[in-house]
Amino acid sequence: MDSHQGGTTRRRRIALLSSPTSYRTPAFLAAAERLGLEVLQIVDTPEALAREWRWPEAVDFSQPQAATARIVELVQQRPVAAVVPVDDSATLLAALVASRLGLAHNDPDAALAARDKLCMRERLHACDVPVPSFTPYPAAADPRPLAHQIEYPCVVKPTLLSGSRGVIRADDPEQFIAAFERVQRIIASDGADLERAVILVESYVPGFEVALEGLLTGGELQVLALFDKPDPLDGPFFEETIYVTPSRLPEQTQQAIAECTARAAEALGLRTGPVHAELRINQVGPWLIEVAGRSIGGLCSTILEFGTGMSLEELILAHAIGEPIDSFERRGEAVGVMMIPIPGAGILRRVEGIEAARRVPGVTGIEITAKLNHPLVPLPEGASYLGFIFARGQTPADVETTLRTAHRCLSFRITPEIRLHPVTAARR
Questions:
Q1: Which of 109, 121, 186, 249 has the CB geometry, 3.0–4.6 Å to 253, for a possible disulfide?
Q2: Per-residue DSSP letters for 41-107?
Q3: Which residue blocks in 190-273 are alpha helix, DSSP H?
Q4: Helix ranges, 302-395 (H)
Q5: Are the C-beta atoms of 368 and 359 separated by less than 8 Å?
Q6: 202: three-class secondary structure by DSSP
Q7: Distance between CA atoms of 10 and 13, rounded to whole angstroms?
């Protein structure tokens, strides 16, 4: 911490680790400003660009050891009270940096386990946390001989992508082969080496899906919000749409979900900071699908307020620097968000009906985040949403109805993307 001459005021500073395209960065920067925190913003940047730009805070997160050394060097010049990752790409690096600096942190192995789906499955299974049965396969494998060894339905997924990218359900051998090959292409397009990567094949768990937002302190889980996902997520792809809180599930079921999430965090070794868990609920009880050592993605946190009006990001930053928090209780009525699904691939030309959607009673905001005249890429290849609709109401059912009504007001003009291929001149 820095002391100012002529007074006892101390400026507080955090290191914020983010990807350049994260939806979440502006919210964390705004939260830091409201809390009076100075921010050392470290942005994930390919090494070649970092060298060319000569921007000290541009660091290649894909090289964790080198990135750790570089960030520690930066922080030695500008000491920080906490290292905060914005999204999945930075959780392991934040743990490595904080451990080097002697700051509060998750063990790097725990951060990796919450990032790598195979490592996560292995740890959760070893600690008897209910998870789908799973088998890892080399990503370069030929799926044809595997197709008749699989129990159906199954789910094929990469181990390191997030936001449901590359997650595909298969109900028979033909679908399995197509899904496996598609995941191979997605992994390769993301820059991974198929010879070293892994593809997971899991049993499909039927049920109702929820998302839990929580905060860990010394390994103890504080539930901040439990979201119902009222749209069925049955596949073949698993595009999330509506989140509504508070949950309409019975209190006993909600308690079981919280206990399952706490057991999962303990099994992975997570002990501090935000957690975001995805679970499925059926007649057996809760099944842990994923748990991440970061907060909710997209712009979904916009709908959450706590205590005397703190945003989720303010809560996370205050917790990270050890400030006392008046209340973890969520404020206000029922709230919800719709992540507007991408209706198809192509070029987004126009969005109509936004004003009509905003006039729907209960709508508190609409953000179209996709850029006009740019390509739209739906799941399972896509990594972003078309936009977000936010709403509040007296009950969760009211909020769900509001979101669906507003979405029906919107229409999207999408034209096919014309790909140009170079023409080789004929030899004379």
A1: 249
A2: EEEE--HHHHHHHT-TTEE-TTSHHHHHHHHHHHHHHS--SEEEE-SHHHHHHHHHHHHHHT-S---
A3: 251-268
A4: 312-320, 354-358
A5: no
A6: strand
A7: 10
Q: For 156-168, how does the pLDDT look when each residue is reduced to its tens digit (9 = 90+)?
A: 999 998 889 999 9
Query: What are the strands, taking DSSP E only, across 159-265?
Result: 168-170, 198-203, 208-217, 220-228, 242-245
The type of residue at 405 is T
Query: Domains in the chain: how many in total?
Result: 3
Which residue type does 78 have? R
Q: Do 85 and 138 fall within a single domain?
A: no
Using CA atoms, how far residue 318 sits from 1, 176, 297, 313, in Å, is 15, 46, 19, 8
Q: Is 111:132 a contact under the CB 8 Å cutoff?
A: no
CA trace torsion 65, 66, 70, 76 (10° rounding)? 40
14 shares its domain with 96: yes
Output the DSSP codes for 57-74. TEE-TTSHHHHHHHHHHH
The encoded tokens of residue 250 equal 């019975």
Nearest to 317 by CA among 72, 10, 31, 110: 31
- What's phi and psi for 196, nearest 5 deg? -115, -15
Domain that residue 18 falls in: 10-105
Place of tokens 């985040």: 369
Q: Which residue has the tokens 């990469």?
A: 158
Beta bridge partners of 336: 244, 391
Q: Are strands 58-59 and 37-44 parallel, antiparallel or unpaired?
A: parallel
Residue 15 sits in a domain whose CATH number is 3.40.50.20
Contact status, residue 419 vs residue 348, Cβ threshold 8 Å: no
What's the CA gap between 351 and 113, in Å, rounded? 40
Does the predicted model carry a pTM greater than 0.85?
A: yes
- Residue 160 sits in a domain whose CATH number is 3.30.1490.20
SS3 (DSSP) at 269: coil
